[in-house]
Amino acid sequence: MGKEMTMVYVVTGILGALIGSFLNVCIHRIPRGESIVRPRSRCPHCQTAVRFYDNLPILSFFILRGRCRDCSAPISWRYPLIELINTCGYLFLLWKFGLGWDLLVYALLFSALVVVTFIDLSHQIVPDRITLPGIVVGAIAAATVLPAGLVNALIGIVLGGGLFYLIAILSRGGMGGGDIKLIAMIGAFLGWRDVLLTIFIAALTGSIVGVYLMIVLGKGRKYPVPFGPFLAIGAIVSLYWGPEILTWYSHLGSY
Residue 223 pLDDT > 80, yes or no? Predict the structure, then answer.
């Protein structure tokens, strides 16, 4: 790897961490209907504004030993985790796709999925403030810079959203409206083939977790498990390895 590419990876990692810090703000404020711009970040316990040198992504958590400098209240592990996840996600996207407009679009999708995942885990909602603009951005990106193309994206929106809407009707509310919009957003970015792969992976991982909760933890069938995180996992797997998985599956069927 040359010096120039090494610097690209360093800058990408730093941007991933900085944006990850902003994602923490989104995850905390969006479910509460608060502005993600103002006021500046504050300790949720003592409401003291976080100093700029205490707001370094990942590092500040360990420098402060996981506690607020002013009131010593514990800082959730979620903050450095999200920053690290976003950093690693951006670096892997760079390795997978190289520099280009598609890298920026996929980075936006990845960060949106991180926000959706942690909001759904905490509040059991998938915010429209993420998915509805995401559908529009994904379709525009597909029409301009993404390999999927506009027609593929539109089919992905209708197919993904339509299947989940049908499930919601047949199950009489078993599928939430937020999940319908989320899978439509994923279809806008990835197209119809990858949206089907996303649904399959989400159903598989969701079933595995559900069995674990029932058998190991003794949870009942009606124990609420948000489906948004599984859709996010399926979308990320499809984004990174979708063509390889589909090629492998097509060859498997020929034997």
Answer: no
